[in-house]
Design the sequence.
């Protein structure tokens, strides 16, 4: 389940780089771009595995889709997607500390703008590994209909 998100992340990076080149935007460093691509792939893995874990909590697609639709808006708006975290009100800064999207975005920005990784990336990698282990355990214990046929 992490192959397709990896390919999509690479294609998005390719399209973004093509647009930047067409707009004659100077790219500071190709190593920053490659680092950002790596962070993006790890982030895509995180959200893919989280989606698998979330899917196990619901009995049908309608409930799952409704939950995801309702959860995405607060996740997006409470993370520094559209604003710098330092400029946000204090309560939003505290809320964003519990939001994994915050760490994904901070890691992507630091990789692209400064060419460095920080605790945000390490936390994302740690959560991704924990979620992969959790999903593996859940999938291995789950009985699938028609598995013996």
Sequence:
């Amino acid at each position: 389940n992490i192959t397709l998100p990896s390919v999509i992340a690479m294609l998005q990076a390719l399209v973004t780089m093509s647009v930047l080149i067409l707009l004659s935007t100077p790219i500071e460093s190709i190593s920053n771009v490659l680092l950002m691509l790596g962070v993006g792939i790890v982030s895509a893995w995180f959200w893919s595995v989280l989606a698998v874990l979330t899917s196990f909590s619901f009995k049908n697609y309608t409930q799952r889709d409704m939950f995801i639709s309702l959860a995405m808006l607060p996740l997006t708006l409470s993370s520094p997607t559209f604003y710098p975290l330092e400029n946000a009100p204090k309560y939003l800064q505290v809320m964003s500390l519990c939001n994994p999207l915050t760490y994904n975005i901070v890691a992507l920005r630091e990789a692209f703008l400064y060419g460095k990784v920080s605790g945000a990336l390490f936390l994302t990698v740690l959560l991704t590994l924990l979620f992969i282990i959790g999903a593996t355990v859940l999938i291995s214990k789950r009985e699938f209909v028609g598995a013996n046929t």
Q: What stands out?
A: The radius of gyration is 18 Å.
